[in-house]
Amino acid sequence: MINTMNTTGHDSSQRFIFENADVRGEIVRLNRAYIDTVHGKNYPESVARLLGEFLAASVLLGTTIKFDGRLVLQARSKGQIALMMAECTSVGEVRGIARYDAVPTSAEFTELLRDGTLVITIDTKKGEPYQGIVALEGNSLAQCLLEYFRQSEQLATQFYFATNRDGVAAMLLQQLPAQLHKDPEVRAQHWDHYSTLARTLTDDELLDLPNAEILHRLYHEEELRVFEPHALVFKCSCSRERTARALSVLDKQEIDELVAERGGVEISCEFCGSEYNFGPGELALLFEQTEEGPTH
Ligand SMILES: [Zn+2]
């Protein structure tokens, strides 16, 4: 199960910035939260690993913006995986799922997620949700995200992922708006240098070394400011109320049939497996309320 040899330990997200260049970075690791996410799902290893990347990516994407709410990273495809989805809240709660008809057999990203779109949604507690979309083109999630940033931002952004059976580790490098250096050539030089160095890190190093050692190995010639890590945890946002709301928009006739057959409706949460049971009386009430008009 969890690799106790991994001294880097706790699920966390840790930011660093270069003191002498307009570049920042972030290292994310998820072990416990990853295990909790895939627990009991029987995902093939390739699917579980990719879901690990999605989880880490949702955290990393969340660090590129200020928001209060939830960031959802979702891929819909005609490949072996129909839907893959990971979420991270602004307080560091993650969850995710993969959906497919036939059990995926490939380990290739391009087979698992083919002909589709990658959608990033930011649901804030106030205001309209933001949504960004990019085609699933590329041989990896990192490449798709690179393309997303190329299309939507002026700032160069690069993702690095490493997974094993115990979890996922990931790193992000991102250009900051020009402050210290305005010269585009100097900015480009800095970016090339740091992102090239980051690519020298092996998967095992990213997974197994403590953050401080990774940063020393890559950037010991640079002055870095490293911030306190933020804790990450698996937590599902499902509830009885939300499930009831989801039920109330379903076809009433179907629900009636289920009630006649089984005496009620049983819904289990896809993310965490929690079960919610609704009896005939409660269901009747639910649909009565819906018929009276939209509820908020
Ligand atoms: Zn749940």
Descriptive report:
The protein is an alpha+beta fold and 296 residues long. It folds into two domains: 223 residues, Hsp33 domain, CATH 3.55.30.10; 52 residues, HSP33 redox switch-like (CBS domain Like, Alpha-Beta Complex). It is 35% helix and 29% strand. The protein is built from ten helices and 14 strands. The strands form three sheets. Strands 1, 2, 8, 9, 10 and 11 form a six-stranded antiparallel sheet that branches. The chain has a six-stranded mixed sheet with strand order 7-6-3-4-5-12, with helices on one face. The longest helix has 19 residues. The protein is elongated. The N terminus is likely disordered. The structure holds zinc ion. Zinc ion (ZN) binds next to loops.
CATH architecture term of the largest domain: 3-Layer(bab) Sandwich
What is the CATH superfamily of the largest domain? Hsp33 domain
Question: Which ligands occur here?
Answer: zinc ion
| Alpha-carbon Rg, integer | 21 Å
Provide the domain count.
2
How many extended strands?
Answer: 14
Remind me, CATH topology of the largest domain? Hsp33 domain
What general form does the structure show? elongated
Structural class by helix and strand composition: alpha+beta
Distance between the termini: 43 Å
- What letter string, H or E per element, gives the SSE order? EEHHEEEHEEHEEHHHEEEHHEEH
Instruction: Please state roughly what percent of the residues sit in beta strands, choosing from under 5%, 5-15%, 15-25%, 25-35%, 35-45% or over 45%.
Output: 25-35%
* Number of separate helices: 10
Average pLDDT across residues? 91
Largest sheet: 6 strands, antiparallel
- Helix content range: 25-40%
Which stretches are low in confidence, meaning pLDDT under 50 for 5 or more residues running? Answer: 1-8
- CATH C-level class of the largest domain is Alpha Beta
